[in-house]
Design brief:
The protein is of the alpha+beta class. The protein is about 50% helix and about 15% strand. The chain has a single domain (about 35-165), classed as Haem-degrading domain (Beta-Lactamase), CATH 3.30.450.150. Strand 1 (about 55-60) and strand 2 (about 65-70) form a beta hairpin.
């Protein structure tokens, strides 16, 4: 009797594990870890600091939730909010904020995009990808121009790129 019970439990478990309906109900998503987020933020901040730019750096997960944020000594208080919002915008829209700025400027239908609560359509936010999947984003605020914020964000992603598999 005991062996029959084990057999039935094993059979039900095997059927549930192989059932396509059950497998389709469960999502598997990649997300940036705190360790990688911290490493990317530190690298971006160091890159900017070496250039003399006092910035803040934020890294968010795939859902736009803050994982880590750093503010350089002397960086303006507004840079905390701008870096977080750039990262959020990039994660949410799955695109770099400089490219989004171009789209808003050139596409009349996208002109209201900056009105969405929480978005900041200025250069300095980049998605962090594993293949085609966005697992997070990095945002930098405070360099003297969005294109320079982008450079800092790129340096942060470059630091962890070998582990984005």
């Amino acid at each position: 009797m005991f062996n029959r019970r084990l057999f039935l439990i094993a059979l039900v478990t095997a059927l549930c594990a192989t059932s396509p309906a059950v497998a389709q109900d469960i999502l598997q998503q990649k997300n940036i870890s705190l360790a990688l987020a911290s490493e990317a933020a530190t690298a971006a901040l160091q890159f900017c600091s070496a250039k003399g730019w006092k910035v803040s750096v934020a890294v968010v997960d795939r859902a736009g939730q803050l994982k880590t944020q750093l503010r350089a000594d002397g960086a303006g208080p507004h840079t905390l909010d701008s870096s977080r919002r750039k990262a959020y915008t990039s994660a949410s829209l799955r695109e770099g904020t400089s490219k989004l700025l171009e789209i808003v400027q050139k596409t009349p239908g996208a002109a209201t995009l900056p009105m969405i609560d929480g978005l900041l359509i200025l250069g300095g936010g980049l998605p962090i990808r594993v293949g085609d999947e966005v697992i997070g984003a990095i945002g930098v605020g405070g360099a003297p121009g969005g294109h320079l914020d982008d450079q800092c964000a790129e340096a942060g992603i470059a630091k962890i790129s070998d582990r984005l598999q």
